[in-house]
Amino acid sequence: MEYRSLGRTGVKVSPLCLGAMMFGPWGNADRADSIRIIHRALDAGINFVDTADVYSGGVSEEIVGQALEGRRDDVFLATKFVMPMNQDDPNERGGSRRWIIREVENSLRRLKTDYIDLYQVHRPSPDTDVEETLGALTDLVRQGKVRYIGSSSYSGSQIVEAQWASRERHLERFVTEQPPYSILVRGIEEDVLPTVQRHGMGTLTYSPLSGGWLSGRWRKDSASAPTSSARPNARFDMTRPANQRKLDIVEDLALLAEETGLTLIELAISFAINHPGVTSAIVGPRTMEHLESYLPAADTKLTVDLLDRIDDLVAPGVTVNPEDNSYGAHELTARARRRNQS
Questions:
Q1: Disulfide: which of 51, 134, 195, 276 matches 156 by Cβ 3.0-4.6 Å?
Q2: pLDDT in tens, 279-313
C-alpha cells in the first residue's frame, strides 16, 4: 500500500483510514469480531484508525483500544469530541475548555493509551469561541496527551477563521479537516478542498459510499430501498426528486464500473482517494466482508477518461441532494435565516 503525507506534518498514512463507527452496538455488537476486522485492516497495510467518543456511547473507543494492545505504536490513532455524551447534561458536549479537558481523559482511558495522535473537533460549535477550543487543545498538545489536532465538517470560512486564530494567538493549528465526500456529494470541491490545500492541511474524507447509496445495496430493481425506518430522514426519503436522481446516477455508475472491471464500491472509494486534495478516505466496515470489498480500492487508479465520464454524471462541486452536505449546515438553519426564532 502506498502511503501519503498527512498535510505538512511529516506523518505518512494509508489512503484508506479504518473508521470505527460500526464497532459496537451501533453496528457490530460482537467485540471479538470487530477486533478481528481491525486486525485484518492493519495486516492489510492500513495504519490509520478513526473513531469518536460518541460512537456507541464510547464502546467503539473501547473496542479500538483493546484491538490495538501490543500494536499501538504502529497506528496513527484519531478520535473526536463535541457530540453529546449525556443528553441530560448540556455541558457534556461541545468545544468548551471545561468539556475538552474532561473528555480527553475519558477517551484516553477507553482507548487504553496515554496519547492520541489526532484529536478532532467532530462538528463546529457555533456558540463557542474558536480560541476557547484551540486554547484547550493547545494545552493538551503541550502536555503530550495529544500529538495533532483537526476539525471535521467545517466550512471553508470556518477553516480560515481557525487558521487565523491559531496564527494570531500562537496556538496549535488544525492540521486536518474531515469532510463528507463521494461521487454523489462533491460540494467540498468548490471551497473546502481548495482551502485545505492552501493551508497545507491533510484531508480525511468520510462516507465515500454516500451512506450506502454507492454500495450497490439500493438499485432501481432492488427489493430493498432506502426507505426503512432506520433511515427516516431527507437523505433517504424516496419521495424527493433529488433521491430519485441519485438512483438514476447509481445505475449509470454501476454500468461504468462494470465496463472498467471494477465493482461499484471500488469505483466509489477510488474516486475519493484519487482527488489530489484528499489524503485518506475513511471506510467504516460492519463486517469482514465489507472490509474485504473496500481494500482493493487502495491500489486502484482511475484514468482521466473515466473521471471525465463520472463528471458527466455528477458535475464537479455538485451535491446531488443538498441534504447530504453536513459541513457549514448551521449557516443555513432557519434561525440563521431569521426564521422560526421562537
A1: 195
A2: 999 999 999 999 999 999 999 999 999 999 999 99
Cβ-proximal residues to 70 (8 Å cutoff; 6+ apart), any chain:
none
CB atoms near residue 135 (< 10 Å):
16
Q: What CATH number is associated with residue 134?
A: 3.20.20.100
Distance of CA 46 to CAs 62, 137, 189, 291, Å? 19, 27, 25, 11
DSSP string, 112-150: T-S-EEEEEESS--TTS-HHHHHHHHHHHHHTTSEEEEE
How far apart CA 55 and CA 83 sit, in angstroms, is: 9
> What domain count does the chain have?
1
In a domain, 271, yes or no: yes
The x, y and z cell numbers of residue 25, run together, are 452496538
**Cell numbers 424516496: residue:** 238
| Paired residues of 205 in beta bridges | 281
Contact status, residue 23 vs residue 38, Cβ threshold 8 Å: yes
Task: Confirm whether 339 is domain-assigned.
Answer: no
Q: Which of 3, 55, 148, 154 is catalytic?
A: 55
Could you tell me the three cell numbers for 127?
456558540
Q: What is the mean pLDDT of each run of 10 residues along the chain (342 residues)?
A: 96 98 97 98 98 97 98 97 95 96 98 98 94 98 98 96 98 98 96 96 97 83 53 71 92 96 98 96 97 97 96 96 71 59 50
C-alpha angle with apex 14: 294 to 214, nearest 5 degrees? 30
Whether 55 is a known active-site residue: answer yes
Q: Quote the domain boundaries for residue 129.
A: 4-332
Angle between helices 130-142 and 156-169 (to 10 degrees): 60
In a domain, 340, yes or no: no
Give the Cα separation of 254 and 273 in Å (integer): 19
In Å, how far from its chain's centre is CA 54? Answer: 14
Give the C-alpha separation, 82 to 57, whole Å. Answer: 13
338 within some domain: no
